[in-house]
Amino acid sequence: xxxxxxxxxxxxxxxxxxxxxxxxxxxxxxxxxxxxxxxxxxxxxxxxxxxxxxxxxxxxxxxxxxxxxxxxxxxxxxxxxxxxxxxxxxxxxxxxxxxxxxxxxxxxxxxxxxxxxxxxxxxxxxxxxxxxxxxxxxxxxxxxxxxxxxxxxxxxxxxxxxxxxxxxxxxxxxxxxxxxxxxxxxxxxxxxxxxxxxxxxxxxxxxxxxxxxxxxxxxxxxxxxxxxxxxxxxxxxxxxxxxxxxxxxxxxxxxxxxxxxxxxxxxxxxxxxxxxxxxxxxxxxxxxxxxxxxxxxxxxxxxxxxxxxxxxxxxxxxxxxxxxxxxxxxxxxxxxxxxxxxxxxxxxxxxxxxxxxxxxxxxxxxxxxxxxxxxxxxxxxxxxxxxxxxxxxxxxxxxxxxxxxxxxxxxxxxxxxxxxxxxxxxxxxxxxxxxxxxxxxxxxxxxxxxxxxxxxxxxxxxxxxxxxxxxxxxxxxxx
Length: 479
Known about the structure:
By secondary structure, this protein is an alpha/beta fold. The chain folds into two domains: 2-111, no CATH class; 170-477, Rossmann fold (3-Layer(aba) Sandwich), CATH 3.40.50.1820. Helix content is 41%, strand content 18%. It is built from 16 helices and 16 strands. It is globular and about 70 Å long. The relative contact order is 0.08.
């Protein structure tokens, strides 16, 4: 159906004004698709309204316009009917006969260069929009399907049936957690010739995840302080039993906690959904220890990525006030991806496929100790994750490392940082930057020439442990 509006000879701008302003309600009120043909001398302009939308009580068309009509269209519509509707739909304007060529001559000479750019921009926006919708569909919870209630007298469904409804990967994850927890319970806590009180237990974090924990205490009542150990990436707290032996022999109590996804704790092995969760669990663990040991000075110890976790946790005032200081060995402060492309795609892939194992970032082949026996013990330990790093875990390390490097000057807590100069996993110069830029009044750094990443598993581990104990005693004597 066509409505023909005879129009006298006029300029293109006046023509558009008449087309869009003269009688829009009469033309577009009731039908979904019509053509309005405007006649100007021998030229016919056909405006095809493909869709209309409801705005208030009236059906109002929204028509895309070419460059030469954009200003006229927006101003004319605004003057007569107010602001343009926020909801827009696609339409088309096509010129018949020679009108399009005549109109193009009236446009700016830059339009031939701008239009291709706009088309490319439109394609990019469509891609981004599609990706965003796909992402929302991926993360938003699906609506639950409510089943009808069971009949009266019907026995409840067995746990075995509920277990079958779960996805296979979740069942495997739970089974793996049970297996790892049994292995963690079997880790040797003390040497035969050393007497101390030790225990293992479960601590529930802020998200109600079960965290496997250990503690060692000297038999004497003369407790000088407590050191809380936060292990590094892919390892577990049981590896620090020998370090705990040295601490308890000097009348220091020791606590240690396995991260989420590590050791005997809940979660997929080697997968850390957020290091901020580890930071929060560390703070909650410290609060519980302070409640159980009132008045006893406490220190936090962190190795590698655990050092980054400890440093960020200590940046919160309520955690800093509970500590006398922190000890960092080989902290992960300036971590770089294995390849620049990894850092570029990690934020996207960590959302789309967070548990994907990125083989190109696996650093298992890098030596972390000069002691062959220590290397063999680490990589033959079933509780040490030796598979490729997972995408979300790698992204979280890059993210916390970048955050800490931007905020070195805000560090005020007393600290002792230790690093090997031959470390190929984390950067010893970043530890030097921490020492130089931190605002802490009580701070110390010690670089061990030629030592590798796992300082407490180097041949000189006894001397390094004594350096840490000496620093804690010096810190306590100055209080």
